[in-house]
Amino acid sequence: MSNKKTRILIAKPGLDGHDRGAKFIARALRDAGFEVIYTGLRQTPEAIASAAIQEDVQWVGLSCLSGAHNSLFPKVVEILKQKQAEDIKVFGGGVIPSDDIPGLKEAGIKEIFTPGATSKSVIDYINSN
Amino acid sequence: MVQKILAGDIRSIARAITLAENEDYQAVELMRSLYSHTGKAYLVGITGPPGGGKSTLVDRMIAYYRKLDLKVAVIGIDPSSTFTGGALLGDRVRMQAHATDSGVFIRSMGSRGHLGGLAVATADSAKILDAAGYDIIIFETVGIGQSEIEVASQVDTTVLVTVPGLGDDIQVLKAGTMEIADIFVVNKADRDGVEKSVMAIEQLLSTWDMTEDDFVPPILKVTAKDNIGIGELAQAIEQHKKYLHDSGKFEVRRRNRAVTEVHTLILNQLDKWAHDKMTKDITTRDNIEEVYLKFIDPHTVAREALRELELETMWDKWGQGADGGG
Question: Cβ contact (<8 Å) for A56 and B93?
Answer without folding.
Answer: no
